[in-house]
Write a structure and sequence with these properties.
Helices cover 37% and strands 23% of the residues. With 221 residues, the chain is an alpha+beta fold. It is globular and about 50 Å long. The chain has a four-stranded antiparallel β-sheet with strand order 1-8-3-6. It has a four-stranded antiparallel β-sheet with strand order 2-7-4-5. It has two domains: 124 residues, Sandwich (Jelly Rolls), CATH 2.60.120; 75 residues, Winged helix-like DNA-binding domain superfamily/Winged helix DNA-binding domain (Arc Repressor Mutant, subunit A, Orthogonal Bundle), CATH 1.10.10.10. The termini are far apart. The chain contains seven helices and eleven strands. Helix 2 crosses helix 3, helix 4 packs across helix 5 and helix 5 crosses helix 6.
């Protein structure tokens, strides 16, 4: 009888450890809550990697109306447009809580992507996942109800599926910001947040805590 050989899993590539290594030229930058990291129209020169905290990505049209296009957290990259040849930032990045990020200059990021294949694979996977997320957000806006859009946004902000613990405490995010993110009014957000709280999907305890049971709203037909 031939014994089956056990498959040896390759160790997971630790992006944080790699970026912290001496071989990668980067600088650690700390931002206060509500501090702008870069503004729409600023020169695009660096890619940033969030170590701690959270970042809001928003755009402003010619009439001054702001739209929130993404909320990012630890483990996320942003500012990657410079790698595609964008000369200026196409959006504004703002820290929504005290935030620590690694800033990697464009030329250094290009070098690392060419020379470190494990990191390159991880970065490409991240960008593909980001593109899928953008497509899902568009479908969400076009076809889902306000209630489902709000539930999905709260789960994404709580980084559902990426945490070891089942429930996550969100940073302070106003209902106005949530309304901007899902394309509705603050009063509608308030109505559904009250409903979610009464059903036990969320609760307030020094911040907003989102429970995985909120997924039932997204999955309900």
């Amino acid at each position: 009888m031939v014994k089956k050989r056990k498959k040896i899993k390759a160790p997971v590539f630790d992006v944080q450890a790699f970026l912290d290594s001496a071989g990668v030229a980067r600088r650690v930058v700390e931002y206060r809550k509500s501090q702008k990291i870069f503004s729409q129209g600023d020169p695009a020169a660096s890619v940033l990697y969030i170590q701690q905290g959270g970042v809001k990505i928003s755009v402003v049209n010619e009439s001054g109306k702001e739209a929130v296009v993404a909320m990012l957290g630890p483990g996320d990259f942003f500012g990657e447009g410079c790698l595609a040849g964008q000369p200026v930032c196409m959006a504004t990045a703002t820290a929504i809580t005290p935030t620590t990020a690694l800033a990697i200059e464009k030329n250094e990021m290009v070098r690392v992507l060419h020379e470190e294949h494990a990191f390159s694979d991880r970065f490409i996977s991240y960008m593909l996942a980001r593109n899928i997320r953008v497509e899902e957000d568009l479908v969400d806006q076009l076809f889902n109800s306000t209630e489902k859009r709000l539930a999905r946004t709260l789960l994404l902000l709580a980084r559902y599926g990426k945490q070891n613990h089942p429930d996550t405490l969100l940073p302070r995010i106003s209902q106005e910001m949530l309304a901007e993110m899902i394309g509705t009014t603050r009063s509608r957000v308030n109505f559904f947040m009250t409903k979610f709280r009464k059903l036990g999907f969320i609760h307030y305890n020094g911040g907003l805590q989102v429970h995985n049971s909120l997924l039932s709203v997204v999955l309900h037909e």
